[in-house]
Design a protein that fits this description.
heterodimer; A: 659 residues; alpha/beta; Rossmann fold; 3 domains; six-stranded parallel β-sheet; five-stranded parallel β-sheet; globular; B: 117 residues; mainly alpha; Cytochrome Bc1 Complex, Chain D, domain 2; 5 helices
Chain lengths: 659, 117
């Protein structure tokens, strides 16, 4: 079926798309000959009084001039070919996406004109999976991917994982198919899948979005989108891709097409005066505590945080946003040390309030009790980009916490200045006391580690298998490799963070950010994709509930030969919800109705039990299970690792204790 | 049956305050009650607990004497929801306590090679 009446496209009459394009050209490059714009737009411009003084020649040139970049030869080629050239300048390696007619033009250009490299199209079975893969990939590679979403419905599918990425401050370039021109787009489904302002669907949880109406506009918007997404605080961005703009030949409106050069923006660092004030508080504290959440995701960042902690001999509490700090370091301590602190420095905390306060969900009316975790008079310092990216509707910014020294800035960019300031502020007469403090922390660390091991020993031989046993059986067989626990969803009481030796940033890269279920499976595939390119072994601990939201991501892993060992944390329920319903029943003095299941009706995933190993096999994975006897687990992991090392994904369906 | 257990439990408790009501309580029944009443949800099936659900508290081999255990179950005060007598009988509490007491003592972590890697 022809997309449009070609005679209409070639008509000299100014249609809506051409008007939009011409208007954009007029705005973007007044120095060239915008013939159509001159006829249509100029009279209105002349009638409007000047609101500001005219710019001088230099400013005018900077704003309107065409950069000294060789112009792009159009030769009547499709707009989407030019778009592919734009995308290729940014070295985006993969493009995980579900195919869709609303972006068919750029799809064709990517695989034929662009030869399906940089980016390589990865076939996904759901838009949510595409975004989740991009999210997981970034956490390991520290490089963003782009995805393409179908008009309206496809973007709606993608929203949950875009929100996760937004909350987790992870960049994803989301390009949305759309057909703006109501007068020319096909009726029926393509019109249903079009929107006046498609990016509105995700505007509240993306950092920036745009709707380009000309090829040059796309060029600038795409590079700008990439730059904005990658400048801390990082976050997803959205570009509306007009089908007409992508499908039709590039029109000569006198514009000189060019692709702006991408130059990474230096991350914002904290203001020096505030940094010095923070340093002064820290060096004079008796019991300073460092709390890190989404603070750093690189070896350099970890090294800087180690340097700061060692200078102060201050314990470091690792929250779950990133690894931040080696768990093997003697200054790594549990959150209980917060109660003893006289100065706390929070580094990119997703929830500062909940770090220094405690909410207990213990009231029948749904109003829990609140208590402080800290001593009165404890001084609080914050380094965070939270204030640099806060919107109104979605409440991911958490409760407000007043802080004595709030510093807006990226943690990794600010740490060098803070370390220098601490060195300067550190009085000689404090050095002995600080060293003594470090010795006490070291002893507590060693004792704590022994206690944690003893906790892991409880129910060691249990059936179903304890989560501690599950994790240590895995670790025994990966620890001598270059391994990575990829982003995943298993909620196994943090045993890996507590007992695996983690000192590389990619050993653990944190949770989803928004706690949207359906993230773990695709994110694990994305993380494994990044690790594959580094020759690194990937393992995930996969929650059963999460698995069933986007299991198609596993087919993508098999299709594109992404090696990944997935070990199911199969507790046969939406366990968080199991406990919530039980809690409410208890508060109301009722015996909870479990029907024929173990958990309250509506929360169990049993009767029938899902055969995850068979599901995995059906999408091309090697798989085994269900494994219930702990004695069988080690040999099964060994078998699965051999498969993964051969380049294939493998899954073990393990029945586990709840948490 | 429940009444008999309850009576015996009260009797035993009156004899030795703070001790397990050994004459009455049934570890076997306690295991059933532990699962039926949802204790496993936060404490896992063998009472090992979790940092995520029970604040890391282990109730297997609990050091609490029975009376204190029962008082806590009835009015925990913290994040655990209360189990009042309307939904968990005294005899069930006694049985659950017996079940937890019956669990084998955990091995020493030092004797588990996987915990000494």
């Amino acid at each position: 079926m022809p997309k449009k009446d070609s005679s209409a496209k070639n008509s000299p009459k100014l249609d809506r798309r051409r008007f939009l394009a011409a208007a954009a050209v007029a705005g973007a490059s007044g120095a060239v000959k915008p013939a159509m714009a001159a006829t249509e737009a100029q009279p209105h411009a002349e009638q409007r009084p000047l609101s500001v003084l005219p710019p001088n020649a230099r400013v005018a040139a900077a704003e309107n001039g065409v950069p000294d970049i060789p112009p792009y030869s159009t030769e009547g080629r499709p707009g989407s070919d030019f778009m592919v050239d734009v995308i290729k300048t940014l070295n985006i390696k993969y493009l995980p996406a579900n195919p869709a007619s609303s972006y068919r033009a750029i799809h064709e250009s990517l695989i034929d004109y662009g030869k399906n490299t940089m980016p390589e199209f990865l076939t996904c079975t759901h838009e949510e999976a595409g975004v989740g893969i991009a999210h997981g990939y970034y956490k390991i590679a520290n490089k963003p991917l782009m995805t393409l979403c179908h008009g309206t419905v496809g973007l709606m599918h993608a929203t949950m994982n875009i929100y996760n990425a937004y909350c987790d401050r992870v960049p994803v370039i989301v390009v949305n198919g759309n057909d703006l021109d109501a007068a020319h787009r096909p009726p029926g489904v393509p019109t249903v899948h079009s929107a006046q302002d498609i990016n509105a669907i995700v505007r509240e949880f993306t950092k920036w979005d745009d709707t380009p109406v000309s090829a040059q506009h796309f060029s600038e918007s795409f590079v700008r989108a990439y730059q904005i997404a990658m400048t801390p605080p990082c976050a997803p961005v959205a570009i509306s891709l007009d089908d007409g703009l992508a499908t039709e030949p590039i029109r000569d409106y006198g514009q000189k097409l060019y692709i702006p050069k991408y130059v990474p923006t230096a991350a914002p660092a904290g203001e020096l005066g505030a940094v010095r004030e923070a340093a002064k508080l820290l060096v004079n504290a008796e019991r300073p505590v460092i709390v890190a959440d989404r603070a750093v995701n690189s070896q350099r960042g970890i090294a800087l945080l180690v340097q700061l902690a060692e200078l102060l001999q201050a314990p470091v509490v690792r929250q779950n946003g990133r690894l931040n700090f080696p768990n093997t370091h003697y200054l790594s301590r549990p959150e209980s040390v917060i109660s003893q602190a006289d100065v706390i420095i929070g580094l990119e905390l997703a929830d500062y309030w909940n770090t220094v306060n405690r909410f207990t969900d213990n009231n029948a009316q749904g109003v829990g009790s609140v208590s402080s975790r800290i001593k009165p008079g404890t001084k609080l310092i914050s380094i965070s980009t939270l204030q640099l990216l806060t919107k109104s509707n979605y409440q991911e910014f958490q409760r407000f916490q007043s802080v004595d020294v709030p510093i807006a800035g990226d943690v990794e960019a600010t740490l060098p200045a803070l370390i220098d300031a601490v060195k300067v502020a550190l009085p000689d007469n404090r050095k002995d006391a600080i060293a003594k403090r470090g010795q006490a922390v070291k002893e507590a660390h060693m004792k704590g580690r022994d206690e944690t091991k003893q906790l892991a020993a409880i129910a060691w031989d249990a059936t179903p298998i304890s989560t501690a046993r599950l994790c240590m059986e895995i670790y025994a067989q990966i620890k001598d490799m270059d391994w990575s626990l990829v982003p995943s969803s298993g909620n196994v009481s943090n045993w890996p963070q507590r007992l695996w030796a983690m000192d590389k940033y990619y050993h653990y890269t944190g949770d989803s950010g928004g706690y949207g279920v359906g993230w773990g499976a695709p994110a694990s595939v994305g993380g494994a994709l990044a690790n594959r390119d580094e020759g690194r072994f990937s393992v995930s601990i996969q929650g059963d509930g999460d698995m069933m939201y986007a299991p198609g991501a596993f087919w993508t892993a098999a299709r594109h030969k992404i090696p990944l060992l997935t070990v199911m944390h199969n507790n046969r329920g939406y366990h968080q919800e199991v406990m919530h319903v039980q809690r409410l029943a208890n508060f109301r003095n009722r015996t909870v109705n479990v029907g024929n299941d173990l958990g309250p009706i509506g929360t169990s995933i049993m009767n029938p039990d899902i055969e995850y190993h068979k599901l995995a096999e059906s999408v091309g994975w090697w798989a085994k299970g269900p494994i219930k006897d702990p004695a069988e687990l080690g040999p099964a992991i060994k078998e699965a690792i051999a498969v993964v090392k051969s380049g294939q994904p493998a899954l073990l369906n393990v029945w586990t204790q709840p948490r | 049956m429940g009444f008999v257990r309850l009576t015996l439990a009260a009797f035993a408790a009156s004899l030795v305050l703070g001790q397990v009501p050994a004459l009455a309580a049934s570890a076997e029944n306690g295991k059933v009650a532990f699962v039926k009443n949802g204790c496993w949800q936060c404490h896992d099936f063998l009472g090992q607990g979790s940092v995520a659900t029970s604040g890391g508290r282990v109730i297997a081999d609990t050091p609490l004497p029975f009376d204190a255990f029962k008082a806590y179950v009835r009015d925990p005060g913290g994040s655990m929801p209360p189990f009042h007598v309307e939904i968990l009988s005294d005899s069930d509490v006694a049985d659950i306590y017996a079940y937890l007491e019956s669990l084998p003592k955990p091995k020493s972590a030092k004797d588990i090679p996987l915990l000494n890697q």
